[in-house]
Amino acid sequence: MPFAAALVLMALLALVQGAGLAGFDLNTDNEVDAEGAAPADGLSSLMGLGVVPFMVWLACLLFLFAMLGLGMQALLEDLLGAPLNRWVSAALAAIAALPATALIVRPLARILPRDETTAVGLDSLVGRRATITIGRALAGSPARAMVKDRFSHPHHVMVEPHDGSSEIREGEIVLLVRREGETFYGMPLQDRQLAPIG
Known about the structure:
Largest sheet: 5 strands, mixed, barrel
Strand order of the largest sheet: 1-2-3-5-4
Distance between the termini: 72 Å
Number of domains: 2
Mean pLDDT: 79
Structural class: alpha+beta
Helix content: 25-40%
Number of helices: 4
Order of helices and strands: HHHHEEEEE
Shape: rod-shaped
């Protein structure tokens, strides 16, 4: 009965996923800083939690639990003429299924597609060209500029001239040479060979 219930639950999970009804996120990254690591985190890693999405891990666990339990009961019935008590066999199957799941999900993680992000950090915009879109950039008085990241996504940033004695007018293209906080410092492209970057 416990093993049949596990198979039914696994089938229900597959149906929910297949029908697209699982609108909640059950991914667990289990990323823990070294300072905050606890014994429970090591146990989670040992069991394979966080290696694959939680739904995949749970499906593997349920499948292995059911297969190991049914196989053990069938073997004992052939050898002894009767299966073990259902709860004893369920406990033994669960103990065996946990390390087996950890072994299965690690190679599985290498072939499953992973989520990818196009988010970038602000520092990655340094070295890119930006166009002044609103205002006139002066030292201490930044202007709004538009710069595209490596995915061609636009970002609107505040830019001051790298050379404090110069100004950058609306429509000019600048090279972003450094960042301090939320402010970028740019050099007009025609001047970039003349002024040192420091």
